[in-house]
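Take a careful look at the sequence and tokenised backbone pasted below. I need to know what the token row says about the fold.
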Amino acid sequence: ECCNKSLTYKDLDKRSNQVANWIIDRHIQKETFIGILIGDRIEFIVTVIGVLKARCVFIPLDTTLPGERLEIMIDSTDTRLVIGDTVNLSRLISNEEIKETESKITYIAIDDCYPDDNSSPLDNLDCQYNPEDKIYVYFTSGTTGEPRSFVGKNKSLQHFIDWEIDTLDINGYLRVSQLINP
């Protein structure tokens, strides 16, 4: 639940599958860097999970940053696709449609990832994950100049979650948020 909106796990699974299938249907390769520029936290989480289900690498882009800084972050990585909400995408591009720039980055509004006719498969995807798979890119604050990026892998996230479960004595009844502002 966030901002008086909620989503069931079933709906989260369905919508993230739609995002993943949109990516897969466009033959976007495993470990492609995909920026996520979405202000709505629920939609952001749906998109992160969809990107991971497609075995791509998500780059959380902070919607509070100026457009110039976002462009530096996008350009400094090998980002091929940015999925965003129309408000935030309009800060980077001149229209709200899919746009391919000279740098070969495609911008897509998240609403375009959801089929109107429910033709997209909604079942869980059969993904085979590897501990060495790249799964996210985060940036330093850039206080000493331009922000620097670092890539996280499945095994590092699993190590963190194992530490968290052990250190915080997390059990099946406790809920812990794993997402913070990028």
About this structure: Residues 95-101 have pLDDT under 50 and may be disordered. Residues 133 and 153 are 5 Å apart (CA to CA). The chain has five helices and seven strands.
